[in-house]
Write a structure and sequence with these properties.
This is SET domain-containing protein. GO terms for molecular function: protein-lysine N-methyltransferase activity. The protein is α+β, with helices and mostly antiparallel strands. The chain is 38% helix and 10% strand. The strands form seven sheets. Strands 1-6-11-10 form a four-stranded antiparallel β-sheet, with no helix packed on it.
Length: 576
């Protein structure tokens, strides 16, 4: 199981408490009340969960960010009880585990922010089709602003019973860690750090999953977001630039679910509102779904209660995404510029809903329930950590990446050293590898490359031997880091050819060119007759890749020393 089950039997006896420790059950009564109100809200808004499924409260996790200002809070304030979905019985494959009308989802289009501030115009898709790639980079900032607006409204918001179940301080994400802090030190030399550094260089969302940086969020919030909040909620934003002029009780009201209690009577500094906005943004990052051409990105009640499992999830998220961009209509409307059949493949009697459909059945132990999982995508460990704030023990999609040795940055130098290349050699070999890649990638752009098969397909057919999978992968997700190795054993074509070229250059000094590199590469991957120097060159290239990976391991071990982990634990225990 990739994500530990968090459900707890609500009538289970409380465990013995350690002196000074937070008692999670002291907050359980309030959580049960919120849970009941949310279930009533779901019923009123026709949000349905299959009768064989049930929402369960978690056993409770620390909810507050670490810091001295929160030291005086009670255990009720410090613990959050989330929700997860459990099955009491089996459900047939293809059945609907949950249905959520689009009228019940929270998006920039369905939020009341534009009613309070007519100048707020929700973002739209950035292409002719909807996908994670075409959704506007403003999708996350806009939804976070709408979410914060609804929290300010509190019980006046039609989404309040749902909002009241969300983590009140947001979710801690790596992008919030400051370089030099004990937490950030864990990320040193990892893929998470590399992706975060790349994101910091970008001015907008740089990944196709609405992952944004503090820099981009700050640009939007201080550039436009504050003005929208000030327009929608007069008196909320303090006119005094001094941060101390804001709320006098930050530990009490600097949480999303209590914000409405203070919003009507006192103002907040821009820095305080930024912190609250950032909390809302973490909820968007960890809980939102891409919906359709109209809503784009939205918070979906019930759907976000299904935890993630990389392999063998039980349900999958589905909805009709091709709708009218002006009104969200699934069928014919006054804005139609396309034929109805062209715009939607849904049947006329299908409701415009979001569904979670059962794709895999499960066994139920007698007298027990089992947790039901969704999948947030085939994501690597670092992608899960950056966007969702957790990592799993499934390493199949994990990878180590490097920039080209020609880039002369830290990773490029690491590659050059592992391959035994001087700066002059690097530039010369890089030019040859680039020329070879243009040829190997050209015939079958975007497909598996026959240049790197262990066995030629025609030979496999004639010998009646199953064709083997390629061990070389293409292309890299990040063009700036074209050299990579997957934990499953795949490596990039760029890395292989660079390693092979460096060995060939050493074995045959002065003869390396594109033609000779491709010739040796073809002979190496041919299943028969590899002998002598060709075999030695190929084995040498493989040894260089192994050496490169070993150097990365050594850097990771140095960064994540036992003493560092102890330091982080001590810091967090002190803050708690």
């Amino acid at each position: 199981m990739d994500v530990p089950a968090q459900a707890a039997i609500l009538d289970a006896p409380a465990p013995q408490q350690v002196a000074g420790a937070t008692d999670p059950f002291s907050s359980l009564s309030a959580a049960k009340e919120k849970h009941a109100r949310f279930l009533s809200w779901c019923s009123e808004n026709e949000v349905r969960l299959h009768e064989s499924l049930e929402l369960k409260l978690s056993s409770g996790v620390p909810a507050a960010p670490y810091g001295d200002e929160f030291a005086s809070l009670s255990s009720t304030d410090l613990v959050h009880h989330g929700m997860c979905v459990h099955a009491k019985a089996r459900i047939a494959k293809g059945a609907q585990a949950a249905t959520i009308p689009k009228t019940a989802i929270l998006s920039p289009q369905s939020s009341s922010l534009s009613q309070y501030d007519p100048t707020f115009v929700p973002c739209t898709i950035g292409g002719i089709t909807l996908s994670d790639d075409t959704a506007s980079p403003l999708a996350t900032p806009h939804l976070a602003l709408c979410l914060l607006h609804e929290f300010i409204l509190g019980p006046k918001s039609r989404f309040w019973p749902y909002l009241d179940t969300l983590p009140p301080y947001g979710v801690e994400l790596p992008r919030q860690w400051v370089d030099g802090s004990p937490e950030y030190s864990i990320l040193k030399h990892t893929e998470t750090e590399q992706v975060m550094k790349r994101l910091q260089r970008e001015s907008s969302a740089a990944l196709p999953d609405h992952t944004v940086t503090d820099r981009f969020l700050r640009q939007f919030f201080f550039g436009k977001g504050l003005a929208h909040l000030s327009q929608a909620h007069p008196g909320l934003v303090s006119s005094n630039p001094d941060p101390s002029s804001g709320t006098s009780s930050p530990a009490t009201f600097m949480r999303l679910d209590r914000l409405h209690e203070a919003a009507g009577s006192q103002s907040f500094s821009s820095d305080e509102l930024w912190r609250l906005y950032d909390m809302a943004a973490t909820l968007v990052s960890t809980r939102s779904f891409v919906i359709d051409w109209f809503h784009v990105l939205a918070m979906v009640p019930i759907a976000d209660a299904f935890n993630h499992k990389t392999s063998a999830p039980h349900v999958e998220f589905e909805c009709d995404d091709v709708v009218c961009t002006d009104c969200g209509a699934l069928y014919e409307c006054e804005h139609d510029g396309l034929e109805v059949a062209e715009r939607s493949g849904a049947k006329a009697d299908d409701p415009d809903t979001v569904t979670l459909t059962v794709i895999r059945s499960w066994a139920i132990p007698r007298g027990r329930t089992v947790e039901i999982f969704n999948s947030y995508g085939d994501l690597s460990v670092h992608q899960l950590l950056i966007r969702f704030g957790f990592a799993t023990n499934s390493w199949g999609s994990s990878q180590y990446t490097w920039s080209s040795p020609a880039s002369e940055d830290e990773d490029g130098i690491e590659v050059a050293n592992a391959l035994g290349l001087s700066p002059t050699d690097v530039q010369r070999i890089a030019a040859v590898v680039d020329g070879a890649l243009q040829i190997t990638r050209a015939p079958l752009e975007g497909q598996e490359k026959s240049h790197f098969y262990k066995m030629d397909p025609e030979l496999a057919d004639s010998c009646q031997i199953p064709e083997q999978d390629p061990v070389v992968d293409y292309p890299p997700v990040d063009p700036s880091r074209p050299l990579y190795v997957y934990s499953s054993g795949f490596f990039s074509d760029s890395l292989w050819l660079f390693a092979l070229a460096s060995e060939l250059d050493e074995a045959r000094p002065g003869t390396l060119d594109v033609a000779s590199l491709l010739e040796v590469n073809a002979q190496w991957w041919h299943p028969f007759g590899i002998r002598g120097k060709i075999e030695a060159v190929g084995l040498g290239a493989a040894a260089n890749i192994r050496r490169l990976v070993q150097r990365r391991f050594e850097r990771l071990e140095h960064a994540c020393s036992v003493q560092l982990l102890k330091t982080i634990s001590q810091v967090r225990m002190a803050d708690a």
